[in-house]
Every structure is written in C-alpha cells, then in structure tokens.
C-alpha cells in the first residue's frame, strides 16, 4: 500500500517506462484537519516502484500556479501518455474558483523528457462548452464538472482521444453524468467532441476518474461514483468503482449497463497490466472506514478477471476462466 503519514492521499494514476512503474497521486496535508478541505489544497505527488507494492516517493510532479490561472486553486486528477518522439505528457485538471465561489474545472497538460521534471503548457487546452456539456451557469450541480482526463491512442492510429468526467446540460440532474470526449492529432491541440454516452434515468451525476482499457480482449470503461451522486435506482448498490462494457474503446457507452466492481469503501479504481506476466490488476484508494470517516491511501494490487461475463476481483491463486 502507498500512503503518507503527514498527508491524505487519494486520486492517482500510473505510467510505465519499461523499467519502473510511476505513481502520480493527489495529496494534501493532514494539518488541514478536515479531510474535505483536501480538494482545494491538492498537489500532484510522484512515487516509483519495480513491483507495484513497495513505493519510493520522489519529487512532486506539479503544484498549483500563481493566480490568475486556470489551476490557481489546485491541480487534480489526470493521466500520462508518451508521444512517439519520446516526450511524456501529463494531462491534469486545473481547478479555480468562479466569482460566486463555486469550482470550475479545465484541462491542461505538462511535458517531461524523463517523467521526473515537468513543464506546464500555458493555459488550458479544453473546458466545458455548449451545446454538449453543462456549464456552471445551469445552477443544477455543485461545480462545473470537466475533469479527470484519460488520454489514449486511437485504436486505428488516427491521433489521440481524451475521455473526460463531464455533465450533459439536459436530463435528470443525478443522471446527467456523461463520458466527455475530445480528439487531438498531436496531443497539444484538442478538438471538443460530443460525449460518448448520454444522460440516463439509470445513470450517475458524475462518472469520475474514467479509464478505458481492453482487458483480456474485452473493451471496458471503469469509473467511480458514490450513491449520493447517482440516480435513486443506483443508491442501494453502494458501488464505489463501476464497470461499463462496450463494443469498442470509443463506445458508444450505455451507462444503464454499468455494474459495481467495488463497494464505497474503495474509490477511484484503476486498472494496470503487470509487465512480467500480463495479469490485469485493480488498485483503489481507501475511501471510508466502518464509521464513514475518510481514510485515504492506495491499496496493493488486486487481480481481476472475467467471470460470468463480468469483470471481478479474484483470488490470485485461483483465477477464473473467462
């Protein structure tokens, strides 16, 4: 497990340079006392490992910018990919406050030659915009949700795609969460596109920390949402991390088909394929204890496999046959 004694650790993502695994994570000082205050003090830390169990913290990746800037409140969750020229790109969420004090989220990026020293690009490259995405001015949600960029290469070699936690401007308030979508030819300039899913009466107010993967030949998106932010039909499931199957990495995705992979005690599930044996592993951060208090810290890897047509956590010694 990865945790820090003096800080809360929560959202995170990985990069693999072929030699070491890199863990990028959000953290904030426990001196804040209130764990809910961590969101507006988040920086992006960095740790490395050779076995995905023992981690060594190294120099931080990013901190918030001096204002005024799109990330002058906090730097939030993202993803890392490598350009064919060898440059690493870290896409992240920049958080700032609107005049009314509500949170606005935009997407920016930083680059690095080595995963250690990062240089921010000037300004955001994407933000919520109509007619596809809800803005803060709707008044229907507690923030302007446009965050958690997950970037992947086009399966047919045609540039890059970004999946984004976003909301549609219409539909049931707690079912408006959609998989936002953008495309780029070069990772630097992005075109906003219509979402890969639609609002649903069986849906979610937000599909947080999206990740699209082909797991043992089957495309899936995993995301996180607590019951309090979902449609009433979802609240009894008490799911934390959810699985959403599809025919391709680019959907279209029907959120009504989502099913839970973890309960609410584990949040922000991430999938990673272990380099030496090809085993798919699930990680998560510890969300709450039995009393409902926030915990934090990232779990050790948990093997997953297909069983009965669903992706499930399994005993590593007895992996089921898909």
UniProtKB/TrEMBL annotation:
TM ranges: none
Key word Coiled coil present: no
InterPro entries: Fructan_Metab_Enzymes (IPR050551), Glyco_hydro_32 (IPR001362), Glyco_hydro_32_N (IPR013148), Glyco_hydro_beta-prop_sf (IPR023296)
Swiss-Prot/TrEMBL keywords: Glycosidase, Hydrolase
Boundaries of every Glycosyl hydrolase family 32 N-terminal domain copy: 19-225
CDD domains the record matches: GH32-like (cd18609)
Full protein name: Family 43 glycosylhydrolase
Protein's organism: Microbacterium jejuense
């Amino acid at each position: 497990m990865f945790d820090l004694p003096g800080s809360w650790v929560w959202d995170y993502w990985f990069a693999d340079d072929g030699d070491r695994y890199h863990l990028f994570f959000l953290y904030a000082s426990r001196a804040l006392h209130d764990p809910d205050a961590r969101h507006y003090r988040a920086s992006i830390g960095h740790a490395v490992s050779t076995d995905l169990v023992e981690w060594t913290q190294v120099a931080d990746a990013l901190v918030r910018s001096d204002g005024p800037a799109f990330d002058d409140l906090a730097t939030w969750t993202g993803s890392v990919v490598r350009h064919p020229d060898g440059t690493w790109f870290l896409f992240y969420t920049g958080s700032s406050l609107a005049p009314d004090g509500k949170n606005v989220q935009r997407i920016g990026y930083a680059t690095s030659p080595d995963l250690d020293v990062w240089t921010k690009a000037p300004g955001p490259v994407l933000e919520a915009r109509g007619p596809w995405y809800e803005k803060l001015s709707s008044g229907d949600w507690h923030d302007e949700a446009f965050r958690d960029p997950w970037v992947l290469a086009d399966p047919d070699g045609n540039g890059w795609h970004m999946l984004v936690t976003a909301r549609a401007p219409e539909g049931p308030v707690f079912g408006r969460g959609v998989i936002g979508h953008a495309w780029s030819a070069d990772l630097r300039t992005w075109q906003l596109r219509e979402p890969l899913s639609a609002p649903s009466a069986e849906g979610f107010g937000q599909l947080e920390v999206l990740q699209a993967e082909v797991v043992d030949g089957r495309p899936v998106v995993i995301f996180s949402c607590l019951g309090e932010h979902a449609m009433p039909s979802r609240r009894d499931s008490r799911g934390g991390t959810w699985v959403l199957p599809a025919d391709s990495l680019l959907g279209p995705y029907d959120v009504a088909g989502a099913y839970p992979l973890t309960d609410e005690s584990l949040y922000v599930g991430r999938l990673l394929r272990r380099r030496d044996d090809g085993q798919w592993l699930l990680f998560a951060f510890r969300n709450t204890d039995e009393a409902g208090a926030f915990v934090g810290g990232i779990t050790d890897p948990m093997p997953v496999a297909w069983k009965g047509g669903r992706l499930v956590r399994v005993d590593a010694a007895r992996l089921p046959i898909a």
